[in-house]
Structures
1.
Amino acid sequence: MEIFYSADVYGNSLRLGPEESQHCAKVLRKRVGDAIDVIDGEGTLYHCTVVNDSPKGVEAAVNEAVNNWNSHPYRLTLAVCPTKNNDRYEWFAEKATEFGADCFVPVIGEHSERKVFKTDRLRKIILSATKQSLKAKLAQVREPLTVKEFIKESAASDAVKLIAYCFEEENVPRRSIKEVLAGRGSDEIIVLVGPEGDFSREEAQLAIESGYVPVHLGDSRLRTETAGVAAASAVYFEYM
Amino acid sequence: MEIFYSADVYGNSLRLGPEESQHCAKVLRKRVGDAIDVIDGEGTLYHCTVVNDSPKGVEAAVNEAVNNWNSHPYRLTLAVCPTKNNDRYEWFAEKATEFGADCFVPVIGEHSERKVFKTDRLRKIILSATKQSLKAKLAQVREPLTVKEFIKESAASDAVKLIAYCFEEENVPRRSIKEVLAGRGSDEIIVLVGPEGDFSREEAQLAIESGYVPVHLGDSRLRTETAGVAAASAVYFEYM
């Protein structure tokens, strides 16, 4: 099943952007009268008929709109520190999108080697993974902020807030993410994953004071990007 | 924690191979008297002292041997069809190793575009992921065989045998991998994952006749390499 994306839906018509139009009319040779499926990135899938097959701007008439197409029953925010190697973070974003992540927040930790992060490529990768894994809703990509900024910002949220780090804080034993998710009180979930150098004790303390539950991701020492995917798959399987 | 690998343990001494010796003596500048940790790939971790710091062949004396170091309570075989793009398969092998896979079998399906597969690079990636994720046992890498050959070979095994495909076979409803793992009758688990074009109906039928349970990996359409990682993480979380 080939899916296109349009940010330009008006009434019972829609228009594909330049790249999608090229792919639709040039590569896949869709012609006037052909059926195509288009997502709006907001959660709706449109069954359409091509009415203009120009590679410069494909236009289609909407025959049927399916709201909340292939949606999942939770909202997962992954606040994961960028990895030294950018490919690894892009890979994490692609896979977490396939498992079903709703929001990506590149957070910069005190031990982060990478302090600057560009989100443009990430958005492209997420769009492609969204279409490939048959979803109609595009995950949000936030601009980078520091771990402490994000923790303070989310302190008031009544989401299930988890922070995964690898050390032990006094009197605050970590529980497994599986155990905490099983007893969750909300379907809004936030998971914080640190950089290669892990979170600082200060960041961990601030998170705990802000209502984050310290969790571990099992006995294996996982790379940052693997920890991010582990969190996404843990939620995915919890709701399976 | 930096871990080295040696296939050459004799009595209370061991020798590192050329690459590991270079890394140990040249890159990390370990000298006679320094402590190093070495795995044998069979499940044992050795706490050692360097007795010869030649980059051509580091030798160490074993102070303590820890058997079954960081071992997991199951044996997972992942028989996954190679992806068109080799990087994706190597990525799958790295991540599945982090989650804890014991055997990789590149199986060639009737719908596989890639019919030839070289295992050398995979072994390197798995060794590095094994050390990185703090494991002492190296996953086995089988030479490629066809899906049907592997199914016939495993027919007699009393492992929990799962096959993940995306279509529906008459009278054989697929259950979720989570549900089947929860009711498993063995800690020996085999998961078969097909190529981009999925398994053929014949392959699926043969698997079912050979004791494989058809499973799905949830509502998301996962790429082949993501399905492989999903299977590894499902088992990882089931035993968490």
2.
Amino acid sequence: MSILRFESDYMEGCHPLILEKMNKINFEKMTGYGCDEVCESAKEKIRKACDCQKAEIYFLVGGTQTNATVIDGLLKRYETVITANTGHITEHEAGAIEAKGHKVTMLPSHDGKISCEDLLSYLKNYFADENNAHIVKPGVVYISFPTEFGTIYSLDELKSLRKICDEYNLKLYADGARLGYGLCASDEVTLKDIAKYCHAFYIGGTKVGALFGEAVVFTEENLIPHFFTLMKQNGALLAKGWLLGLQFDVLFTDDLYFKISRNAIKMAKQIENAFVKKGYQIFMDSPTNQKFIVLENSQMEELKKSVTFSYWQKFDENHTVVRFATSWATTQEQVDALCKLI
Amino acid sequence: MSILRFESDYMEGCHPLILEKMNKINFEKMTGYGCDEVCESAKEKIRKACDCQKAEIYFLVGGTQTNATVIDGLLKRYETVITANTGHITEHEAGAIEAKGHKVTMLPSHDGKISCEDLLSYLKNYFADENNAHIVKPGVVYISFPTEFGTIYSLDELKSLRKICDEYNLKLYADGARLGYGLCASDEVTLKDIAKYCHAFYIGGTKVGALFGEAVVFTEENLIPHFFTLMKQNGALLAKGWLLGLQFDVLFTDDLYFKISRNAIKMAKQIENAFVKKGYQIFMDSPTNQKFIVLENSQMEELKKSVTFSYWQKFDENHTVVRFATSWATTQEQVDALCKLI
Amino acid sequence: MSILRFESDYMEGCHPLILEKMNKINFEKMTGYGCDEVCESAKEKIRKACDCQKAEIYFLVGGTQTNATVIDGLLKRYETVITANTGHITEHEAGAIEAKGHKVTMLPSHDGKISCEDLLSYLKNYFADENNAHIVKPGVVYISFPTEFGTIYSLDELKSLRKICDEYNLKLYADGARLGYGLCASDEVTLKDIAKYCHAFYIGGTKVGALFGEAVVFTEENLIPHFFTLMKQNGALLAKGWLLGLQFDVLFTDDLYFKISRNAIKMAKQIENAFVKKGYQIFMDSPTNQKFIVLENSQMEELKKSVTFSYWQKFDENHTVVRFATSWATTQEQVDALCKLI
Amino acid sequence: MSILRFESDYMEGCHPLILEKMNKINFEKMTGYGCDEVCESAKEKIRKACDCQKAEIYFLVGGTQTNATVIDGLLKRYETVITANTGHITEHEAGAIEAKGHKVTMLPSHDGKISCEDLLSYLKNYFADENNAHIVKPGVVYISFPTEFGTIYSLDELKSLRKICDEYNLKLYADGARLGYGLCASDEVTLKDIAKYCHAFYIGGTKVGALFGEAVVFTEENLIPHFFTLMKQNGALLAKGWLLGLQFDVLFTDDLYFKISRNAIKMAKQIENAFVKKGYQIFMDSPTNQKFIVLENSQMEELKKSVTFSYWQKFDENHTVVRFATSWATTQEQVDALCKLI
């Protein structure tokens, strides 16, 4: 029997409808760099889904590239981007933001989220400091939705963050690498809310049904002038941009993006329930497609023989926190097989 | 009748064998970031094709990204990269090299190539200048094979460039966006020669049969330490790296990369012959898949109605130089249709 | 007899009035970072001399630092600075502009100057190119006044450059490392003209009477927001900023800056005349404090025994172009001694 | 009566012997860029004082410039510099390190110092993380001696830090903006120890007797190749470099640097004693020229009328921590006047 794999959510290819369309138009000659009708169609569908007709949309290839290109575009040289100290940009992107010349300022992480209190306190300190001309100025607030811990901001939190940003002239940017999973796990925040409260965000494709690709949405016109040239300069402009448009066009047809996201949430919930039922401790209340479970070390070693999962952190001398991740492609059979092993 | 399109060589998707394999393994769970067996297989095939077992190979997504990441990795901060003033890195990459902090030093272009004489003269001047500590130091020589004008270096030129590089402690790097077309058009230079005389180069996939992707080959061990981390920092690390490995694995099976490259050369030659036969002037002796033709302006306007091609430059008051590009996917039918229109 | 030295114009310390004032206030406790009353006084004097009350003025330490900090501040990331290919920023500043991420675009040098024709032609090409989103956008025009060849722009040339800049939405920036010498050599261009036609420029102190220091003048309000923080970030903010203010305060009292500049021009003229009288060829018509003379090689070797000067370039097999530079501190005795040797 | 000023240690000009020598050689023609005999003499004296004949020494203008240029030179692009979260480079240099492309990694501050335990723990975590190729690699350890809080590392701490650096292949770099004050306050660490245990450090001049200037000492040969060119590229190369050499030549003649440093320590001790005697609370045990005192808020307001000092932080509702700084130039009269007011 082959091993069950639950270590991440970007292990499969893409939704079959995408491959189908790729097969279909493979020999059609397309204009380069995203200036084609398939991209236009995808953009229009995303604008509608966001309920934001003025949105400017660009397709990039991957998450780190997208974060670095967008944040660099939003920041002036004397400005800094603010993140939870667990944010992907500060932890796992090899210094990509700093490589573009910007300091990343960290606030405490509350299960992966920043709190409005911490943000306000930091801003007040900065503006009260009479020597702040020697310090980088706050420019952008980075949040991830859902966070790296699978947690999600409430609608009130989103509103409050935006309010603070408006008050202090900051831009609010959301990293949506797993946006579909976050939105499907929330009982209140919708894509329209994200578009309403964020100046910029991206709709993650790589982890949610696409082969690769992230759709950046700017909810204000000309938020980053000449973004196309900046994409080129950052090596983030795909020659066959229609490949990206095609994927998002499929994903935003008939609500597919959300339909397949819901599968991941459903499968993850079943896994969580199975662990709970057997008396395992859930490490963190994480409503999305990532479940963090406390395993006794010997159990963990035993389980490893037939399932892959991610090491997260040490819990105590005898226990370890591990992560199980589902995706749009996780099947009931795979989950059943896992649950039997627990 | 739909319009014939010859304006560039990256208009189609990919070779059907690639799509076939993608369809086949779409739901296999693969390890991320290129650390999978498909990438390993592709690398091994490329090493063999290069006759360079010690080669270190990485797969990146696009050309500008690859040039910037590799050249940045090869250069020290006080060094410059030398290119023909028509080189892609200085002309059409939106300042990507400079955005990484490096000056690009230009030598005269000889139909897209740099001459050993010019290179030597520049190097001698630099090293003779007693104030050269105020000037960026030569570090890397960038060539494109074939060049942006479709021309190719001879084996002797390649050897001489490498000899100069060794003498002055420079690295020789070749941009192989259209490497297959360049090699198939040469009657002497082979992939093994490229691997022998260049410290680093890339095998272009985007324009030669792949959906996207470039295979960087370092022909010396540890030429750029921690290149994986640099890729991540530059947003050039694809999460589903196996997508890149898969494409090169197919392209380097049964010599497919070169077989399909030859098609582009053959088709281009037919187009050139058709123009010559009708008495048109060939602007530049360009043996690869790009043909530069001098058209009378009114002819050009007429032709535009049924064919797309690229404006290249003004020739004189009444004539214009235009470019016709073929690719691995260009069909005999398309060429025949074009030839009828000439 | 000690050797006569004419190789450059930054060999002496500073005008004695500066040292006198430094001695006088050495133990006065001054506020840091240029936020002191001496700096304010100097700024006010410069504003008056420029006839530009809205000018914002900053004091930096050296020329390369000033060029890099100002040009970086003026440019967007997708923009380039345009210079003659002999401009100091592209030739002798070790890639400082590129190190900040910007491409330097070169136009032909006409005795060190750019021509309006070349500039217009470049701009028209850029804006006519339908693929220019892949190319860095023109943002700043860099000129040096006087140029590296000691030549100066006429008032008409300055006006035309500014007109082009306005038309194409560019900023005009003048490197005034030797501004005093340029202005004293011109029979028409004044400091007020420089302030009228340039968006930004600097008044060179290092080569014109100061120990060190350059006064940056922005002739429009808030041209570079948060420039103070950018200075800090670039390591260009002097803790004891009053040292810079003090020097410019002295130099802009009683017209001292121009009085001492005139000395350099007068001395240089005498040297030129002496060479002409003896039948030597003047290489280039250079009206400022740098004189370029063609010497027969054996004469050059002979002269070297008692005088220092700069090698400029080879003239022909038997002749060499050399440069003699005078400064604010050059004495009649030194010039007489040199003239005797010719 | 004029106000007493104790808010910082860079308020005066320079030691009179420096001005004396500047006056003396003002009209001597000196070779540029630090390639003169005065710089050579200063370097030789510093080498002797460091007991490190192989030391390579460079003179830069200010602290932020020095930190950015040296740390950038020491780091590879994929590496990070580690500092206490109170380090000057992360707090008050406007993102200068990040502007050069490098992430600054913070460890907890223990009264301004990093602990070997924290450093080891961070390093072990990094090297144990199997995904660390996605994270910047530790490259340089930055310490300040004395710290921003006026505290100093013990000899044992220095030795241990270096031992860890050797074990993990890191470079140890000390910011010596106030080095003289730190060394004079230590009863065990000497300049020779700093030179023995640090790969690189700088001897601060700006705050210790010079008008401006910092002497960078590399204790290993060729630690940063082509550092001269990097200085130029960073705008950190002073044209009249002899001005820097002259100052350090004077300061390192007859032990002047340490003699005048001791004055600051002695004066600071008197101030501290006066506060202690009157029953005030000393906030932090800081043995150097900065004294941190807890003042009742109304006392603070009263004192402000006749003395300047720095706000440091809030202590509680009714008390504030303030800083009094002495310098090489602080006089007994000034201290007596202050003590009378307490």
